[in-house]
Amino acid sequence: TMAAASSKTPLLKVLTTPHKIASALDWRKVGGAILTLDIHADRIGLAVSHHPSQAEQSPHTYESLPLEKREIPNFTKRRLAEIVEDQNVCGFVVSWPVQNDTGKFGFAAGRTLYVIEQLLNEDDIITRNRPLCLWDGVHAEQPPTDAFGRSIAYARTCSKPCHSALESQYHQDEKVVAAQVWNDFMKSNWPDVYKYRRTRRQHDWEQQDEAEQSSWNDAYHEDTSDTSYVTMLA
Description:
Elements: H1 2-14, H2 18-27, E1 33-39, E2 43-49, E3 60-66, H3 74-86, E4 89-95, H4 107-119, E5 132-135, H5 178-189, H6 191-233
Parallel strand pairs: 1-4, 4-5
Antiparallel strand pairs: 1-2, 2-3
Helix pairs in contact: 5-6
């Protein structure tokens, strides 16, 4: 309907592809940042990330901001606006909680859109110059489609006399963490940087293990030497 189309217009104006969000950060390597959001029933998780080639540290996570059932508290709106300004945010990566078993959009996805649409009423958070993309960090497999874009999932029949949604579908987003969403986004958009970091972390862990093993061996030999000396004196 016309009303439904007009209600979606504000979101479509700021919604873009993950590639364009990554490109925006490439243009602003120095000083720019991406704010990753994972939206839950009662809170919004936050992680600010600078360009992977410029920042060696993991994403900076903030304390989750509270959500109410029907609206976003003013405190949450103000805090989001402050982070956007302080960190020079140029775009958003919003976790898109599709259902693991079907790859479809469930209750959690609808809740995410509801919160985004409320944030669009603010002039200093999500804008055309500060767009967002939806990111499925789970990468659930979608049912195959034919040449006309039709999916066999919609032709399935159910043998159950009464069908009800799984309780887990309403809480599909509860295990999502903003920092993990960003790491998955970085892995897909900057694979070389991600691979370098992963190799470097593995090397650091191996060195740490070697240092701990060496320290343990030194302590063991020192303790053994002391025991031998006491035995000789006895």
